[in-house]
Amino acid sequence: MVLQFVGNLHHTLLTIEATFLMRLCYGLMRQNFPSVWLLAWVVGSGLTSCAGLQDPAGLTWDPGAAPNYTSDAAWLSLPGRVDASDEVPKKLPQTEIAVDSLEVDVFFVHPTQLFKGDHWNAHLDNRKVNALNTKFPMRLQASAFNIGGRLYAPAYRQAHIGVFTWQDSTSWKALELAYDDVKASFEHYLKHWNNGRPIILAGHSQGSWHIRWLLQEFFDGKPLQEQLVVAYAPGFDFYATDFDQLRYCTSAEETGCVCSWMSYGEGYYPGWLQVNGKTPVCTHPITWALDGTNAIEDHEGVVLSQMRYAYPEAVVAHIERGVLQVHEPDVPFGKALQRENWHVGDINLFWLNIRNNAKQRARLHR
């Protein structure tokens, strides 16, 4: 199989710099407006670097030790133990806390947390990256998929955030190394733990890049496609030509399909859309259609950086030019909180909608 360097991760230099500004803005506004909720969430979404994109000349090629997926230590989440993904948001309605026991497995691939370092790929003993993985994507994102089934999430030697900007041969090599780990973990999961159970694939950002490769290599037109409940792959651009037989979801009830979206502030369209010359496929994470606008009452709520549920009926978004256009949030100081790039909110803005949809599709899968 030939894997091509396609796609546009939409949170490289722009978002790293924007995060610095948001951190500064939040520090000032917090003194005056303690109830400002969304900036607190943005700061805690995992994009914690305050500097510009690192110069690749400062990186050395040292892949480090490969993970041993026979060891529990190589997994960020496993059934039968308490992990960060098991945390339940504070103030989540009681009716949402009690989850059914579902006959489904979730395989979650976390996004990039390597923003600055010495190597092209994060070593598995990198304490800073490991702490970020636990505090942000596993706690705030993977928890949305903790729906009463079994949740698996591998640690892997993730590629540096800059590879999606530099796009040179070493960048490609770093991504291949990261995918080799993800693939090895998935093969271990299939061999030792799956036992024919239905599968939900989920990820974000770089994790979604690897989810696409898993779909192409293991599911598309292959027997395992029958076990696919749904794949959630936000934060990266997917296209109609990515798969031969797999289809994109067009409704909330469909199974065996793929959902992908990238979130931007209403009226902002990233420059790569025009340069790329192709329109991505975009799934609406509230309506689960491939076009249109949601009713505000259908928005079920966000999860903030403090792992707190808040603000149902606050977000409206529509699909245009293959990306999700997020309108000004209907919250206090919503105008000040709106931003061009909502990559950090791809999951958390729609946390409960995603969680409930995953449960719905798992129940409907045959």
Explain this structure.
With 366 residues, the chain is an alpha/beta fold. The chain has one domain (13-364). It is built from 10 helices and 12 strands. The protein has helices at residues 13-32, 38-43, 94-97, 127-141, 163-166, 169-194, 206-219, 272-276, 334-337, 351-364, and strands at 75-77, 105-109, 150-154, 199-203, 228-232, 247-248, 257-259, 263-265, 302-303, 309-310, 317-320, 323-326. The strands form 3 sheets. It has a 7-stranded mixed beta sheet, sandwiched between helices. Strand 9 (302-303) and strand 10 (309-310) form a beta hairpin. It is globular, with a radius of gyration of 19 Å. Residues 1-5 and 11-50 have low confidence and may be disordered.
Give the terminus-to-terminus CA distance: 29 Å
Share in helix:
25-40%
Strand order in the largest sheet:
1-3-2-4-5-7-6
- Tell me about the largest β-sheet: 7 strands, mixed
- Overall structural class, as computed from helix and strand content, comes to alpha/beta
- Provide the β-strand percentage band: 5-15%
Count, helices: 10
- Gyration radius over CA: 19 Å
Number of strands: 12
Along the chain, the helix and strand elements come as HHEHEHEHHEHEEEEHEEEEHH
> Which spans of ≥5 residues are poorly predicted at pLDDT below 50?
1-5, 11-50
Shape assignment:
globular
Mean model confidence by pLDDT: 89
Structural domain tally:
1
